[in-house]
Amino acid sequence: MKRRIKVTITDFAPLKENLNDQAELALYESANGNTYDAEIEHDGYAVVDLSEDDYIELAPGEYQLMIEEWTNAGQIGDLTLQTKSDPVDDKALLYRTVDAAGNEAQAPVSVSKQVVELVAKTWFGKKQKTEADV
User: Fold this and answer.
1) Are β-strands 46-49 and 55-58 bridged in parallel, bridged antiparallel, or unpaired?
2) Who contacts 69 (Cβ-Cβ below 8 Å, separation ≥6)?
3) Helices H, strands E: what count in the chain?
4) Is 104:115 a contact under the CB 8 Å cutoff?
5) Which class for 82: exposed (0-12), middle (13-18), buried (19 or more C-beta within 10 A)?
6) Which of 131, 134, 83, 132 is nearest to 106 (CA)?
7) Residue 61: φ, ψ to 5°
8) How high is the pLDDT of residue 131?
9) Strands across the sheet with 104-112, in order?
């Protein structure tokens, strides 16, 4: 399944150790900071076709999933909660509420993707049994 991603490599040392070809390393360096459509594999790796002949494979920590347009995330009373990627922080999402006419009811707020993930796990994750529960 193709998803929109942004290449966000912060440390090229592991790539330099694993890649023997300077031209291949240059592909990763030139892709860094750019947005692409990528195939996300079952193991979390993203495959980006740069051209007919060239592609790169990115580990989960080397890219961020991107939502470029406001997307409905749910309803809160009469308001619709919308989200999209924060254009100034690749590791954050913007959230806002809009009324039925599409007017902004609450200005966008930037929230770290890590915070969103932790809250989701807390609210919707399965509780692990402790020794006291057994």
Assistant:
1) antiparallel
2) 84
3) 3, 9
4) no
5) buried
6) 83
7) -80, 0
8) 67
9) 71-76, 79-85, 92-98, 104-112
Query: Maximum Cα–Cα distance for the chain, whole Å?
Result: 58
Tell me, what amino acid is at 108?
P
- The closest alpha carbon to 54, from 33, 14, 23, 32, belongs to 23
What phi and psi, each to the nearest 5 degrees, are found at residue 69? Answer: -115, 155
**Residues, the chain:** 134
Distance CA 119, CA 124 (A): 8
> Taking a C-beta distance cutoff of 8 angstroms, is the pair 85, 79 a contact?
no
What global pTM score does this model have?
A: 0.78
DSSP type of residue 100: T
pLDDT tens, the chain, 134 aa long:
799 999 999 999 888 888 888 999 999 999 999 999 999 999 999 999 999 999 999 999 999 999 999 999 999 999 999 999 999 999 999 999 999 999 999 999 999 999 999 998 898 877 666 666 55
